[in-house]
């Protein structure tokens, strides 16, 4: 039976640096655009939803939408968690095995998203399974996250972020997270996603047991 880490999920607010008024306004705009997008997609589908409709629903101009999100796929997939993930990973004990540090950080991230944005998480996962363009873009964004997380892992190991072993390790962890999300989505999003991520990382730790 898979057990959850002894350390509870980190409250990510602790790892967010204070934002100035300008940054808060930008974040508010990003969130408004994203929420409008999810609402429109739920009502009329992904392909039928246009940038112009999103802009109108979010009460911004289409150029503003493109300034914050280069593509419609980015609106669905983008979030503000990557810098917080890196900060949370750097806050883990220096002598903790890297996989266990990532386990705590990633299960904490998933738990936080499910608590604060449950419907968006479910809709995003469903869309990733149904829309090929989103699935392709997700692969790219996860590679970007992998590169970001490689930095604190490399620092701890005394290696460079582009070190082959570091890249393989972080890419494998992100690949495991992706497969846990797909498994969850393919089965109706009814399972405990945090437990699935934990179980998936157990496979990386112990290998496939026959």
Descriptive labels:
210 residues, mainly alpha, Arc Repressor Mutant, subunit A, Tetracycline Repressor, domain 2, 2 domains, disordered N terminus
In short:
By secondary structure, this protein is mainly alpha-helical. The chain contains ten helices and no strands.
Overview of the molecule:
The structure is a single chain. With 210 residues, the protein is mainly alpha-helical. The chain has two domains: 21-71, Arc Repressor Mutant, subunit A (Orthogonal Bundle), CATH 1.10.10.60; 79-210, Tetracycline Repressor, domain 2, CATH 1.10.357. The protein is 71% helix and 0% strand. The protein is built from ten helices and no strands. The longest helix has 26 residues, at 132-157. Residues 1-13 have low confidence and may be disordered.
Per-chain topology:
Layout: H1 21-44, H2 51-58, H3 62-68, H4 72-77, H5 82-90, H6 98-116, H7 118-130, H8 132-157, H9 164-186, H10 193-206
Helix pairs in contact: 1-2, 2-3, 5-8, 6-10, 7-8, 7-9, 8-9, 9-10
InterPro entries: Homeodomain-like_sf, HTH-type_TetR-like_transc_reg, HTH_TetR, MftR_C, Tet_transcr_reg_TetR-rel_C_sf
Protein name: TetR family transcriptional regulator
DNA-binding region: 50-69
Number of strands: 0
CATH class label of the largest domain:
Mainly Alpha
Number of helices: 10
Q: Helix and strand succession?
A: HHHHHHHHHH
Taking the alpha carbons of the first and last residues, their distance comes to 16 Å
- What is the gyration radius calculated from CA atoms? 18 Å
Could you estimate the helical fraction of the residues in percent?
over 70%
